[in-house]
Amino acid sequence: MKITFIFLLLACASPALHAQKIYATQTGQIKFNASTPLETIAAVNNQVDSKMVDKTGQIVFSVLIKSFRFENQLMEDHFNENYLESSKIPKAEFKGFITNITSVNFLKDGKYPINLNGTLTIHGVPQKIAPGGFLVITKGKPAITGTFNIHIKDYGITGSYIGGKIANDAIITINCNYE
């Protein structure tokens, strides 16, 4: 009788022990900056779709290129038509893992350094990247922040202004608050 009770208790607790939580947002933010001394080339996208699994560290970001907003409409048009070809290749995405997810305590508020490893696909060209960042836990809700550089030509993005009015490297800044 006592053994049966212990077995039932373990069977009931087992799903809770192995449960994982998927955090998500559709209002994450990514900023893009490829400014030079000659021109300010900066945009923001506040419609970033991202999901993260707490136990495995698996993480995905998906971005519609046409959702980047520039201060200058003509610059936004050139970004979509001449450089990113957003009508033909509408999305950019990152798929990978937070490699040190076990160092994050989702039950304790704090700012935890994280390392990501995965594939960033922009303009239809996949590249392996391994940026760092922070996972901040506030009242049980995670947020990811981070900044990294990409070499624009590595993603097949070319044009006469790159290296002149457009920097060779773009600074990407991420800020996603998950539910």
Automatic annotation (TrEMBL):
Taxonomic superkingdom: Bacteria
Keyword Lipid metabolism: no
Residue span, Lipid/polyisoprenoid-binding YceI-like domain: 43-176
First and last residue of the signal peptide: 1-18
Record keywords: Signal
Pfam families the UniProt entry points to: YceI (PF04264)
SUPFAM superfamilies the record matches: YceI-like
Full protein name: Lipid/polyisoprenoid-binding YceI-like domain-containing protein
Organism (species): Mucilaginibacter xinganensis
